[in-house]
Structure formats: structure tokens, C-alpha cells
Predict the structure.
Amino acid sequence: MTEDELLQRIAQTLKQEIGPAIDAEYPKTQAFMAGVVLQKLSRQLGVAARHQAAERADLDALLADLNHTARDLPLPAEMQTSLERLTRDRNKAAVCGLIEALYSSRNALGAEHFTVLLARVRQTLRANIDRQVEYAA
Amino acid sequence: MSDRDDSTILQGRIIEYLRSRLPDATDLTLQNVQRIAVGWSHETWLFDLDYRTAGEARHLGLCLRRDPGNALLRHLSDLEQQFCVLQCLEHTALPTPKPYWFERDTAILDAPFLVMEKVRGSCPNPWGRDGRAYYQAAAERGALPKSFTTTLATMHTLDWRAAGLDFLGVPAAGTDFARREISKWRELIALSEHSPEPILTDLICWLEDNIPATDRVTLVHGAYRTGNFLIHDDQISAVLDWELQVLGDPMYDVAYVLSDLNREGTPLLSNLVEREAFFRDYEAATGFVIDEAACRYYNALYAMRSVAFWMSASGLYAAGRSNDIRLARTAWSVPVVLERAARDLGY
């Protein structure tokens, strides 16, 4: 039995056996909710490896596209710095930094480039959130 | 100690407190004590107080709200402010519970608390099957939808200065109102210590870039929907949940009413009101024209607020400040709201 399958079984036990055996409303709800949490964790764990690989690939593609753009169109300093940070750190905080830099460089970039770059970043964000919703919804 | 023991001890302390507040009263007893399991913030207790004064039997229906210090809204949810708001609204046309006492002394009941009138009426849960059926039937009868809209209009047209509500903070004309809200929810997000979320960053940047200007300032409830008021005889007998109120653009409330977050698979706004009737009756009663562009903006702001709520809630559980597993579960609500926000932003 894998770890996610084990969590799934415990979740079922909580929801189908332990919860119904409790009379008091508050602990009964808590038992049921613990089952829901374990179920979500189980699903998250089950897809974690596939999601991490997809996330890495998406980030590689985003960085390639942004660096390509940066060669054709010199980016404002703040954007350039945040792009370098994202290349180095490859984490959510660095993506957030890039988005903030994008918005604050809006005037320097011009409306057209701003829209194109934002759409490219959002493409990555969309793919990522679709994956998260697989287990969160 | 069991929940029952806790409750019995608390009831004894409540009677002691009420005795101090009603020094002429004798033979005080609490009847029909009930802790209601609603909300994410304060403990709410309902009970009937029977007592005698000058030889006469008296009866008082009361509601006690206690702040255990781990409210989802953290310091933004302040019982004293709720009490002051209820005091200000007591003599207005808006139906609200009469406030009796507020105590910040934690020696009395271990936490600050307020005592207010237990208003006659019921509050069916709009998210459950029975609640949905209740509102559907009420929608068909027609009186409650009308009451829903006129009560909101009453709130938006009341003289908040005369009522003394300016202590809530008066936004300047222009973009100040939305800026204050963004700043408030930013603060809650920061307190949650949640890891950064790029879609949230995008949403906040977009919100800051697109703030609608307004010079309308009214009392805004902040969560006006079915489930947040009491109903008696198909009329709203009391507007509840005074935790998110602000002075600001009434379209903030209207956006909440229009939001499809507050209806479960029904075209009826808040599971209750036909859209066309709401527009017609609200505009006639307030003299405001519903600004749908502003409402769309505020809808995005509500997405930010929802994310702030869920980050705060799951953060309280993660930090060991609450043992309520419902809060842990909200960690998975964050991506769901962000996915919706991304769609609202066009991706």
C-alpha cells in the first residue's frame, strides 16, 4: 500500500466508521473534517511527483521565453533583476517578484509588451493552478 | 473536562455576571442554553434569562458572543467595535439586535464578550439542502426577497454620520476606499505567514492598477447575504455578523449580492432574489444606479478577501492557535479561489 493509499484508507475510516459513532455534534464534525483533510492530502501526495515534474518543465519553458524576449527587447532593470532571481531561485517567491516587477515596469515596457509578457507568465500560472485544483477542489 | 462540564461552569459564571448587571434581580435562571455552531470567529451562545424583580417574573432572551482570541479575522475582528456599531444602529431603521453590555475584562468569562438581544427569527443555512429549499419557497412567496432588498437599501441610505458611525473611518473621495480594503486584506495575508502565491500577487497588482474612483460613502455590511440575517414572518428581523462593516462604496455590498459565490446552482441572487427585481427595487429605494463595472472590480477584491480568510484560517491551525480541523481544511480552499480569480482576470 502506498502512502497516499494509506491516507485514503484512514480518511474512509474516519468518515464512515469513527465519525458516525460519535454522538456530540462538534467532535463528530471534526472527525468528518479530519477525513476530508486526509483525503485531500492523499490526492495531493498521489500526484506530487507528476506535478513537480510538470512544474519544473513549465518553469523552464517560461524562463526560456522570457530570456528570449529579453534578448530582443532590453528589459527595465527591475524586470531584469527579478528574471535573474527567478532563474537562480526557481521558487514561488521569485515568480511573485517577477509579477510585481512586471506591473511596476508597465510604463517602461509599454502597453503592448506588458500585455504580451503578462500573458506569458499567466500561461504558466494557469497550468499550475489547474494542477492544484485536481486535488484541492 | 467534557463539553457538558465546560458549559455548566460557563453558565454559572454567566448567571453571576448577569446578577452583577441586574442588581435588583433575584432567582436568576438560564433556560434553553444553546451554543450555536456557526461562523469562524466568535463563540455564540443563546439563552433565555428568567428572573424576578420587585416580586414580578421577568424574561429576557439574550445572545452572548465571546472572543476566544483565535478568530479567523484576528485583530480585525473586534467585539468592542461590533458592540459600538450595534449601539449606533440601535435607533436607526435598520433591524439589528439591541446591544446590552460589552466586557473586555477576561476575568469574567476568560475572554472579552458582548451580550445582546436574542432577536426572534431563524437563520436557515443557505449552503444546506434544507436551507436552499427554505429560500426557494420564500422566493416564491415574494415577501422575503423584497425585505432583503429594502433592508440593504435602508442600510445604504441611513445617515451614518448622525448615527455616529464615523469612528469606522471615513474614506476620502476617489480611490481611498478600495485602497483601504486592499491594505487590510494584505495585512491579514501577511499575518497568516502563508507561502507566496503568484496568482494572488497578480490579483493584488491588478486590483491596485484598476481601482474605481467613487465619492459614494455609505455604511457597508461587507457580507450581506442569506445566512447573515434572521428571518421572522418572511421579513428580516435582524441583520447579523457585524464583523466586516466599513464606510465605503455601497457597490461593495451590491457586488456581494450579485456574486455567484453566494448562490448554489440557482439564478436567484443570494438564493433568494431575482436579479431584475433586485436592480429595480434597489435603485428605486436608494436612488443609486448599480455600477456593474465597479461590482466586477469588487468581485475580484472579494476573491482577494476570501484568499486572505482561508490563508488566515489555515495559518491559525498550522500555528497551533486553534484546534478546529475545519480551519486546516481551508488550506485547500486557497487554490480553488485563486483558480476562480484567474478566470476573472481573463486566464
Remarks:
- The mean pLDDT of chain B is 94.
- DSSP finds twelve helices and nine strands in chain B.
